[in-house]
Amino acid sequence: DWTMAGYRDEAIRKIREQVGDRKVICGLSGGVDSSVAAVLIHEAIGDQLTCVFVDHGLLRLNEAEEVVTMFRDNYNIPLIHADESDLFLGALEGVSDPEVKRKTIGRLFIDVFQRYASGIDGAEFLAQGTLYPDVIESVSFSGGPSVTIKSHHNVGGLPEKMGLKLVEPLRELFKDEVRALGRELGLPDKFIGRHPFPGPGLAIRCPGEITREKLDILRKADAVFIDQIRRHGLYDDIWQAFVAILPVRTVGVMGDGRTYDYACALRAVTSVDGMTADYYPFTHDFLGETATRIINEVKGINRCTYDITSKPPGTIEWE
Ligand code: XMP
Questions:
Q1: Is 198 in the pocket of ligand 1 (CB under 6 A)?
Q2: Residue 84 CB less than 6 A away from ligand 1
Q3: Which domains does the chain possess?
Q4: What global pTM score does this model have?
């Protein structure tokens, strides 16, 4: 009889067998996948594991603090917090092409990760929270060649470059299975149930050029949207929800003054695995209330739209 407890025990056995008494480095993103991988590996080999959390300055409101608190303080997992926001945001200045953005972030991520990882003496393994859908990420159009829609951000190429062997304990699992495994490992439900968050973070929710000002506005608007979704008890019915800040300012009126601020788009979808998605059918009341809150509470936004594109033909993220 297959159970998640059995899977966990088997995964722990395999990690111990692969790693022995050697050291492992794990790139922690704050997402469910890498977190579950880290906790699983920590159960297997304890302090032979060190986590490196690269903070690229493209995380959501309070996210970095939450990750550090949870892993370092609650789980006692050795964690290096690499705060490199200046480096990433500096390199992204003036960049507006989506693929250039992704590649810039991916390249810097590898550099930074490597710099911190090489400070961990004698590490021989690199752990990743790669899931089955990541393994099959490229999309094949019928009759056509296999096409990669977006260059995904991961530490591809890094293991060979650093002479590290890979530990990928989630490679056979889908997202819902990773969540079940996380619950089995005692991670809090609220954390396990978190929506997926892409590696390039807010960069791909800020189409066009990224500025600190836009990121700041985006973080606040996103927090209000998620708060609305939680208050209405909808969070767990939705695969992913977020705000994108649009690269356009529009005219509005507030009080008796004219405003000229950014427009934003709300995005919320249902999905089974992220490969296809439908937009979430919020009520008009919910949408109206959310737009009012965002415009009242977030300085810098004066217009709010709801993205009703499904995937395909849209993608979930805006870039
Ligand atoms: P798209 O936008 O391609 O996204 O429909 C499908 C799912 O993948 C996530 N996503 C990423 N995840 N690195 C990641 O780890 C990436 O570069 C990346 N790009 C998209 C997206 O958030 C959605 O869940």
A1: yes
A2: no
A3: 4-192 (3.40.50.620), 211-306 (3.30.300.10)
A4: 0.89
